[in-house]
Amino acid sequence: MWLEARYLQLEIVRDALKRVFKTINNDGKFTVQKFNRDDVDIITREPIREGFLSLYRYRLRHRLFAGGWSPEFEREIMDRGHAVVVIPYDPERDCYVLLEQFRIGALDEADHYGASPWLLEFVAGMVDKPEETPEAVAARELDEEAGLIASHFYYALTYLSSPGGCTEKITIFVATVDSSQASKHGGLVTENEDIRVHVLPRAEVDELLAHGKINNAASVIGLQWMQLHRQRLLQWWQQNKV
């Protein structure tokens, strides 16, 4: 299943690379990034706070585009581990399964602009153990939060959520599901989760996205990925469904 999902993603990457190299050949302006990890010099790394959200202060320097090295400078960065997001999609009914739950990070938006801190979003969870695969996290969270088992998982993309101040990496999967089996509520009481589950037509979800009613970054990115790649995903699903 994982290899099948990776094959689908490789096709998408291959097509993207073709477009990139076409751009290079046409105008000659595109320059491949020449720097890597060896071009960063970490002088000190000091823990400020360690816990569920750990904070570290770095003193560092790096190479410059114009040549030479930057002066030494400090940056603080948060380490909260990595996460997996699952887009539960029912291709038979053309609908998504979304979750509604309270998010403390949305309180500031609520205080200043009157928005609700209860957000519409997709299934998500942290990678709890180093040996745990992203696909295993996806399956676990899909069951815990929406009461669903995927017929297939499709790897969509991996991205850095906020690299200016956080190490978090997010991996997104699309899970093909039978939405009629979704639970009405989900989450673990032991983790203080109180989740309401919604099954909504794809067209309605796209409208919510267009009008800013879905503003969780991972959900926005995931839905935009689906808008770009849904037809290819459906073709793959038709070929591989039991």
TrEMBL record:
GO MF term (any one): ADP-ribose diphosphatase activity
Keyword Hydrolase included in the entry's annotation: yes
Record SUPFAM superfamilies: Nudix
Motif placement: Nudix box: 125-148
UniProt keyword terms in alphabetical order: Hydrolase, Magnesium, Metal-binding
PROSITE patterns recorded: NUDIX
Tagged with keyword DNA repair: no
GO biological process, one term: ribose phosphate metabolic process
InterPro entries: NDP_pyrophosphatase, NUDIX_hydrolase-like_dom_sf, NUDIX_hydrolase_dom
Residue ranges constituting the Nudix hydrolase domain according to the UniProt record: 79-222
Designated name of the protein: ADP-ribose pyrophosphatase
Organism of this sequence: Pseudidiomarina aestuarii
